[in-house]
Structures are given as structure tokens and as C-alpha cells.
Amino acid sequence: MKRLKSLLLCCATAVSFQVSAQTSTQAETGTDIKDNAGTASLKLEITPFETTVGRIVISIFNSPDTFFSPDKFRYHELNVAESIVNGKVSTTFELPVGEYAVAVYHDSNDNGKMDTNFIGIPEEPSGMSNGHVPKFGPPRYDASKIQLPAEGLVEVIHLN
After folding, report:
1. Are 110 and 55 in contact (CB under 8 A)?
2. How far apart, in whole angstroms, are the C-alpha atoms of residue 80 and residue 83?
3. Is 78 helix (H, G, I), strand (E, B) or coil?
4. CB 61 within 8 Å of CB 141
5. What is the torsional sign of CA 70, 75, 81, 86?
6. What does pTM read for this prediction?
7. Torsion angle defined by CA atoms of residues 136, 139, 131 and 118, in that order, rounded to the nearest 10 degrees
8. Are 156 and 47 in contact (CB under 8 A)?
9. What are the per-10-residue average pLDDT scores of the chain (160 residues)?
10. How far apart are CA 93 and CA 60, in angstroms?
């Protein structure tokens, strides 16, 4: 039973990332909907990498209602080979101060989607903000949300 739960979790996570990645084809999208809050720098440090082939796909969400939906707050892709320094990829976003959840995956074969096995378990590395690793079911906004303060934040995303 425990193994079945783990398989279902992996399937749900893969489907969530598939929906997130396939609903946006632009390199970066989104509009700032929080105004009068001031802006701050959110620096993402993404690690580890088994290969420098492919790209990193980053989705940033600013509410539970848009979490893993086509209505991402930000979407960005980076070429790993061009962006990796000392084993990690770093990128910075200027965002309104507030609450966010970040989902990342490494499209390690650069085919434009998160690959899964025949039952939906991800075959490419992925990670969430706040160190969130879902135990059962898809990732949750409340478990992966982070607060971006006025002084900025460095968030490390560990790919699993």
C-alpha cells in the first residue's frame, strides 16, 4: 500500500509539472498584479545537475488559485550549459514583495516537456521552493510558499 501511495504521488507530481510546462511556450511571461508593495530580488540557486544538456524550466506562482495552472505569475527557461557556474544555475527575478511558490524542473533532454515513465513517474529532476517534497499527491502551494521580503531572498531549489 505504501508503494502504491508513492507511485500515485509521483504520477500526480509529473502531471502537475506537465501541465505547468505545456501551458506556456514563451521564455518569460506574467504581469505584476501586486502594486504599491515595492519590489525585491528573488535569487534562485538551482542544484545539483547530473548533466549540462537541456534547460531549466522555472514557474513562479503568486496564489494557491493559480498554482500549477496556465496562469503563472512568471515563467522562465534557461539553457543549462550557458547558465551553470560551479555546479549550479542561478537566476534573479525582480518581483513585488509578497508570497510565492516556485516549481523547477530540468528538461535534461531538451524536448520541451517533463518526461515520465509509463505510469507517470517523473524521469527528469524537479524541485520546489521551501524544500517541499510532496509525500502523497501533487505539490501543495501552502507547503512550497515562501515570503519575499523587501530586502530580497536567496532560495535554493534542490532537484530530486
Report:
1. yes
2. 5
3. strand
4. yes
5. negative
6. 0.79
7. 70
8. yes
9. 41 47 41 61 97 96 92 93 97 98 96 84 90 86 98 97
10. 10
